[in-house]
Amino acid sequence: MSDATFYIICEPEYARIEGNCSAIDPETDRETENYIRAELEAGNEWAWCIVTVFCEIEHNDETFEGLASLGACSYLSEVDFKDPDGYYQSLCAEAFERCVSQIENT
Fold first, then answer.
1. What is the per-residue pLDDT for 106?
2. Cβ distance 29 to 23 under 8 Å?
3. Residues 25/26/27/30 CA torsion (nearest 10 deg)
4. Domain-located, residue 72
5. Range of the domain at 56
6. Around Cβ 22, how many Cβ atoms within 10 Å?
7. 18: CB partners within 8 A, 6+ apart
8. Farthest-apart Cα atoms in the chain, separation
9. How buried is residue 96: exposed, middle or buried, by Cβ count under 10 Å (0-12/13-18/19+)?
10. Residue 33 falls within a domain, yes or no?
């Protein structure tokens, strides 16, 4: 993936927080929902978002793009999202594969 450039876009998630952020038990779910709301109110756009990873590859004087998205996300920050144990690497791989597929189809 060294020839690829990756970009991340964090956009607001419009799906309801309730019923979509946790499924542990009613008390834990309520605490998680309240935490997310408080983080959003404090300006943390990563608290409840859709994350899209774009991959861009230059090949034979053309630019190819691939993307992969994940919704109903809750993170502390972009750094937290990029944690090696999270979804970032798999989204990069998926976006990269979509770029390669476009290149192969030209």
1. 83
2. yes
3. 120
4. yes
5. 4-14+46-104
6. 18
7. 29, 33
8. 56
9. buried
10. no
**CATH no. for residue 81?**
3.30.160
Neighbours of 40 (CB within 10 A): 18
List, for residues 38-96, the tens digit of each pLDDT value: 999 999 999 999 999 999 999 888 999 999 999 999 999 999 999 999 999 999 999 99
Is residue 41 situated within a structural domain? Answer: no
95 burial via Cβ count (<10 Å: 0-12, 13-18, 19+): buried
Residues 12-38 have pLDDT tens digits of 999 999 999 988 999 999 999 999 999
